[in-house]
Amino acid sequence: MPECAAPAAAPELIARDRGLLWHPYAPLDGDAPYAVLGASGTRLSLGAADGTRFEAVDAMSSWWSAIHGYRNPVLDRALLEQAGRFSHVMFGGLTHAPAVELAERLVAMTPGGLDHVFLADSGSVSVEVALKLAVQYQLGRGRPRRTRFLALRGGYHGDTFAAMGVCDPVDGMHSAFPSLIAEQLFLPRPPAARQLGGELVADADELARWVGVLEDTVARHRDELAAIILEPVLQGAGGMHAYAPGALAAARRVASDNGLLLIGDEIATGLGRTGKLFGSDWAGVVPDIMCVGKALTGGYLTLAATLCSADVARAITASPLRALLHGPTFMGNPLACAVACASLELLVSAGWKDQVLGIERGLQATLAPAASLAAVREVRVLGAVGVVELTGPVNVPAVTRAALELGVWVRPFRNLVYTMPPYTSTPEDVATIGAGIRAAVARVHG
């Protein structure tokens, strides 16, 4: 048996992987066509099954998490220093400095009023915790029938069962688990928005009609609804759909007027990705519950957090249950918390806003020419997110290989070739990403 993580040539590693490891949303007998041989800064060193090696800009930030790049010395040091003290302790009956410091930082950074923190294993788990919070809140307020959720078509909130239940009911995974996923209520996607003068704007009539549907739906179902859950301003895995902040503001108003909670799933949108520190900031609203994850540790370790208001916390504490009914084994893992503290400090000290604005401008310039391609329906950019939407499904293997040959790692899905690069990407990196995406789409789809 080889030593775990021992170096191996890419073709051998890929052959050993095949049929042994599951990969995300892939069959067991499918391929993982590329092996990671190294990573540093914004670059990945990859090897293919045919022996070809690639040096590529990571246009994906490892699914939007590695915002500071790879082998970042600040994060490396935080990890090693904490490992020298202790790597893990149970969180039941114990606390430790990294967890307390992280919670204090999150409370200070998030919109005012989110004063209480639950440290979760992953983004999906943080959503599960948020949904539990909402149901327990309503129980504590004497409304035990309020157990359902109002979500958005096109939304994505994770792969665990309750989280799947509030994902898009058609494009999500509802049909695969019909007896296990609770039936929730869904609103249409809010109207699409585009940046104009630094603001996100949408058609006023379309927005008014959407708000009317929101108000009518809540009026009819308020006695069974616990909360509204949404990804503020940008729906990620559901299609990279940017929508009007006015829809978010309306959801906040309607939730407050009807005794519902508003859950902001900021796992993808939080920590600067859209050009605001949190997506909720585009509308100037504060959710009752907020989930953060992905970029929280800079891509080093899995960690997420669920924050809630004092009102929610009081209702839980005053309820017969008193406690929030969740408690993972690795809750508050010290290694993850220490790296997250360092990542949040680096986010601020490195000037995330200027970093993201620079990427936004670069993506606008370098992706714009893709709009003239026959296969392209639309090009859109928001913060450090660039999207080339095709008129039909992407040939994922072919576009991926073509982009790699041009020095760019992308992971398209459905009809989207998109990028969410590390915030540390240089102007040259961004230009390489844009040129690679354009050329790969042109080569494969015309």
Question: Would you write up a description of this structure?
Answer:
The structure is a single chain. This protein has 446 residues and is an alpha/beta fold. It is 36% helix and 19% strand. The chain is built from 13 helices and 18 strands. It has a 7-stranded mixed sheet with strand order 4-14-13-12-9-5-6, sandwiched between helices. Strands 1-2-3-17 form a 4-stranded mixed sheet. Strand 10 (234-235) and strand 11 (241-242) form a beta hairpin. Helix 5 (123-140) crosses helix 9 (310-318). The model has no long low-confidence stretch (mean pLDDT 95). Substrate binds at residues 63, 156, 294, 327, 411. The modification N6-(pyridoxal phosphate)lysine is found at residue 294. Its EC number is 2.6.1.62. InterPro entries: Aminotrans_3 (IPR005814), Aminotrans_3_PPA_site (IPR049704), BioA (IPR005815), PyrdxlP-dep_Trfase (IPR015424), PyrdxlP-dep_Trfase_major (IPR015421), PyrdxlP-dep_Trfase_small (IPR015422).
Question: What are the defining features of this structure?
Answer:
13 helices, Aspartate Aminotransferase, domain 2, seven-stranded mixed sheet, adenosylmethionine-8-amino-7-oxononanoate transaminase activity, alpha/beta, PyrdxlP-dep_Trfase, 446 residues, 2 domains, EC 2.6.1.62, pyridoxal phosphate binding
